[in-house]
């Protein structure tokens, strides 16, 4: 074949390669959006379950089972696109799935905290995103894990504020405050090495301050006056609403 004949063939090969690249990229971006939307719904569901914690035990158990089922459905989305991220391709396309992965880690961390207590480890997240043989669907970047955990502290702030008006809620809020403070301190060492973590740490600091200010206001009010349990709960409820707004 003449040299002039090889040029169109070369450009045809380049076109096919670029089409494949853009198609894979779009599929991953769509999957990431689906994962993000589904994970947010799981977080809202967990909050609803916790808000109904004084309700029927059987109903609460069913809602918790629903959250677990939805997590499995989101994981299935990632399992279905794992072949797009096979081998070295993962690092080329990791940014296209990153947003959804962080949101899933946030939802999974929240569910783990409610079910088991404590922080879900990086190893537990990677194990969750592995097949039946223990092989990872794809490697979970440490940066996505850290950013997902940082977002998770915001959900803990909402949980702490809404818990304060409930029996033993102030004790739970104190425990959450200590937990969030520990997460912030642990993530601080990673801040120089992970893009966007500094901005998320600022939000974590604001979340921690909201919890502490609400607890401080309640402690001051209760020490100044001899309040009945009903009146104290009323004040706590008001403070909680102010901090959530």
From TrEMBL:
<keyword id="KW-0539">Nucleus</keyword>
<dbReference type="InterPro" id="IPR036081">
    <property type="entry name" value="Translin_sf"/>
</dbReference>
<dbReference type="InterPro" id="IPR002848">
    <property type="entry name" value="Translin_fam"/>
</dbReference>
<dbReference type="GO" id="GO:0005737">
    <property type="term" value="C:cytoplasm"/>
</dbReference>
<dbReference type="GO" id="GO:0043565">
    <property type="term" value="F:sequence-specific DNA binding"/>
</dbReference>
<protein>
    <submittedName>
        <fullName>Translin</fullName>
    </submittedName>
</protein>
<dbReference type="GO" id="GO:0005634">
    <property type="term" value="C:nucleus"/>
</dbReference>
<keyword id="KW-0963">Cytoplasm</keyword>
<comment type="similarity">
    <text>Belongs to the translin family.</text>
</comment>
<dbReference type="Pfam" id="PF01997">
    <property type="entry name" value="Translin"/>
</dbReference>
<dbReference type="InterPro" id="IPR016068">
    <property type="entry name" value="Translin_N"/>
</dbReference>
<dbReference type="InterPro" id="IPR016069">
    <property type="entry name" value="Translin_C"/>
</dbReference>
